[in-house]
Amino acid sequence: MHATLLIALYAFAGAAVTGLVGAAVLRLIRRRSLTASLAVVAAVAVLAMLAGTLAVAWAMFLSPHDLSVVTTVVAMAAVVSLATALLLGRWVVARSRELTAAARSFGDDGGYAAPAVPGTAELDALSRELAATSARLAASRERERALETSRRELVAWISHDLRTPLAGLRAMSEALEDGVAADPDRYLRQIRAEVERLNDMVGDLFELSRIHAGTLALAPARISLYDLVGDALAGADPLAREQGVRLVGDAVAAVPVEVDGKEMSRVLGNLLVNAIRRTPADGTVAVAAERSADGVVLSVTDGCGGIPEEDLPRVFDTGWRGTHARTPPAGAGLGLAIVRGIVEAHRGRATVRNIPGGCRFEVTLPLAGA
């Protein structure tokens, strides 16, 4: 038992010295290729075994012949180990370089193509993560392009929509100033109407800027949808009568929600105005509210004839008005963008889909206390 402990002690001492030297070498070449590190690891393993064997051999006073045999065996093992480590290192380095090239192209053109030859499990995991990141970035770039397009459209439409009433106001004010207005009272009423239009546009821009800046302050309170819809229908009734459109709100459940009453009234008002203006005379605009698995679904159905399928994803984009504007003639494509911003601020979502003869806007909100 004593002899066995001595053999273990001598073997451990020889291997430990080799291991410490190997650790120092690995620290020195830590910024070098993986091939060099693998070669050092293989060399340390073999040399540790050789050092331990030699220490034990010297302690046991082996004959020179026996010592040379042991040394030769260990040397052959060292050759094979180093060759294997070099081959493995070159293979791993090659796969790493392929992954680096793929990641470089990912940074250059935004696309990522995984290397054709699979690498180690860790490199494959990194490759999958790069592919997922590439997909997310592609979607983000697409959203950014769509947002930039909508911003350019918004600037163009705002410039046009502001120029038209301003030109009218200038002409009417000059006519009043020169005393050539045939009906000054009518001119004054028209000026007031144009000022109201401009005020509404500026208000929409301010609301949208708060939404985009994340500074929209909500004051949520527990409200019944029945009361909320009733107030919105009462506010939209004069416009509906003027357009010859019938408002229906019979399918509204008295479901409690915790929302900002003022902001949600604006959401309903925008949806109802859009629906009324796009529904032909003698048509119907219906409002409904019901519970669902996701919370409460508040819907506005119109008779606009439907929206082209390719335009549906852009309906709520800032400044989008499509071929046939979804907003009042005085608007600049902000109404539905404001709807989406306010609804998302309430942790809800706004969607639209076509139905026979028209389309259906749906606002999904969480239940009170959810």
UniProtKB/TrEMBL annotation:
Reactions this protein catalyses: ATP + protein L-histidine = ADP + protein N-phospho-L-histidine
Domain Histidine kinase: 157-369
Cellular component terms (Gene Ontology): plasma membrane
One Pfam family from the record: HATPase_c
Source superkingdom: Bacteria
Record-listed E.C. numbers: 2.7.13.3
UniProt main location, coarse: membrane
Domain HAMP, residue spans: 90-142
Molecular function, one GO term: phosphorelay sensor kinase activity
UniProt KW keywords: Kinase, Membrane, Phosphoprotein, Transferase, Transmembrane, Transmembrane helix, Two-component regulatory system
UniProt name for this protein: Sensor-like histidine kinase SenX3
Gene source species: Streptomyces coelicoflavus
